[in-house]
Amino acid sequence: MKPSRNTWLAYGVIAVVALVVLGNSLYLVDQRKQAIILRFGEPVGVVATPGLKLKTPFVENVVLLDNRNQALEASQEEIIGADQQRLVVDAFLRYRINDPLQFYRTLRNEQNAASRLESLTNSSLRQILGGAKSADIISGERDALMKRTRDDVARRAAESRLGVQIIDLRIKRADLPTANQEAVYRRMQTARQQQAAQTRAVGEQNKRSITAGADKEVAITLASATETAETTRGKGEAKRAQIFASAYGKDASFAAFYRSMQAYEASIGTGTTMVLSPDSDFFKYFSKGPNAR
User: Fold this and answer.
1) Which among 66, 133, 164, 202 counts the fewest CB atoms within 10 Å?
2) Residue 173 forms beta bridges with which residues?
3) What percent of the chain has pLDDT over 70?
4) Inter-residue contact 101 to 68 (CB < 8 Å)
């Protein structure tokens, strides 16, 4: 006997109901996610292992949350430092959901978490960086200030029972507001120009001092060398005169002859014209030789 039309209809209704029940009983947890089990809208458990899972149909619902580290870009914040210098600060925060049940009870979803954490971050930045000088924020104590700000955000998040763990906080940029940059650059340029002028003046003074010292050393060296040369020359001349005197004393005629030869050498040269008497004493050695009297 063939099933009636009503029977087939009943089978179809049963199959649809079964599919609906099965669809509401199974859910998939990705390895990058963690599941919160809601029973009548209240969180009752957490499933952190990935795979296909079962739940009570029509009674339990599932909310999936990311279990990876999350990055939050905080909006720009203008901060007045301890030196009354305005700075525009960009920061980013890294966090993860470490207590999914508490996270859901307090924040419900990740969008609310981002908004709440951004507010905490900006508040901590104003408090911590507001007590530091702009030079420390930009470079000097930046690492220590970031650590203090991170710890402060972590403390506030724990006190607010947000169910998140603050992993890191970094200042991406800390610059002067656009309206102040030009004036600061001009002051920096003027300061560098003054420093350069001072350096050049000191260099020029050192140059003159070194040059004067070198000239003095040269003058002293030349004077000493001239003195030594004159002394040596004087000693040589004295020795020469002594030798000549000794030689002249031994042979007067040879001495007269030698002096005459020196006179001839000094006075008679190429193109020299002399008007002298042939019997002059100047030429006596030309006719009589070295024995002339």
Assistant:
1) 202
2) 90
3) 80
4) no
Tell me the H-state helices in the chain: 5-23, 100-106, 110-129, 134-135, 142-159, 178-250, 252-267, 284-288
* β 60-66/70-73 pair status: unpaired
Closest CA to 70 of 96, 92, 91, 90: 96
* 168 pLDDT above the threshold of 70: yes
pLDDT tens, position by position, 88-145: 888 999 999 999 999 999 999 999 999 999 999 999 999 998 888 888 887 768 889 9
Instruction: Tell me the C-alpha distance between 90 and 92, whole Å.
Output: 7
pLDDT at 277: 63
Nearest partner of 124 among 180, 69, 79, judged by Cα: 79
Question: What single string gives the DSSP state of each residue in 25-53?
Answer: TEEEE-TTEEEEEEETTEEEEEE-S-EEE
- pLDDT at residue 72 greater than cutoff 70: yes
Token couple for 19? 């599919």
In angstroms, the CA 283 to CA 116 distance is: 130
Neighbour count for residue 83 (Cβ, 10 Å): 11
Listed as own residue / partner, the contacts of 21-29 with beta carbons closer than 8 Å and 24 or more positions apart are 21/57, 24/55, 24/57, 24/58, 25/54, 25/55, 25/56, 25/57, 26/52, 26/53, 26/54, 26/55, 27/52, 27/53, 27/55, 27/62, 28/52, 28/53, 29/53, 29/64
Q: How confident is the model at residue 191 (pLDDT cuts 50, 70, 90)?
A: confident
**Hey, which residues does 35 pair with through a beta bridge?**
47, 64
**Taking the CB of residue 121, how many other CB atoms lie within 10 A of it?**
26
Helix (H, G, I), strand (E, B) or coil at 97: strand
